Protein 1
Amino acid sequence: MLGAALARLHPRNGGELNNTEMAREQGVRVSRLCVNLKAMLRRYTEGDEAGFEVGRDGTQRVALATSLLLRCSAYIGASWQ
């Protein structure tokens, strides 16, 4: 999702999203997350516990990668100051 937001950064804006664009992007991300969570919970409530576990494991990997990305970004940002 972060990649999609970054892809929308356009040189005409100096490579930055304004507040309206950022709010719209956040709304899109929240909507996608809600749809994915609903589908994941539906699998669990319908008895597909194995499918739920696979989804949970994938989510944990994405969370770990996101955490690493944020730490790297903070490190790079701190080194530029």
Note: Helices lie at 2-7, 19-45, 49-80.
Protein 2
Amino acid sequence: MFKKCAVLMTLVVASSGCSNAEEKIWNESEVVDALNLSQGSMGVGFSFVSKEGVECNVAAVLTTKTAVELYRKAGDVVASNPSGTAGVKIVTKESRHCLESAEVALSRLE
């Protein structure tokens, strides 16, 4: 019985780790360049100006699909490229404008 349980547990653990084996990983600089981000005040976070002229604050640069999904599941406002493999966490009152502008810019990363 113990061997059967150990084999089943091994299969469950092995199958759960396979999905990220070939995950696309972007360099942070690629995401920063796509959005033309500038360093935030006091070296914390980043910012960019939306096409509507709204200053947008970015708390985190996300370089993998797993990171994008993690932040979205936490309820954060996340802009990403269409495949969801790169993104940023938006923290600003005008998040709609920032989200739209960031997603347009990030669409270049595919």
Note: The CA atoms of residues 5 and 95 lie 49 Å apart.
Protein 3
Amino acid sequence: MTTWRKELEYWLNRNGEGWGNINFCTLTANELDTNFGSHGGKDAGIPFLVWTSEFVYFSKEDEYHECTSIGYVPRNPCNNPRCIN
């Protein structure tokens, strides 16, 4: 089990960002802390979007691997390969 807060913290830190960089989140604090299974299906987390000054993070469900995870894209497209996940 995991929460979106834990998963987002990992990706924010990986991209040199933190909670203070978030401009908007579609989840409430309670929804961020709701446990869910990362294996998708009925135990998948609540879909969300998070905007920072650099990236837009979103929930994604990979039907092939049957898992729920976080994807992100740059807010402003660039040629840096690090900007695309």
Note: The first strand starts at residue 22 and ends at 25.
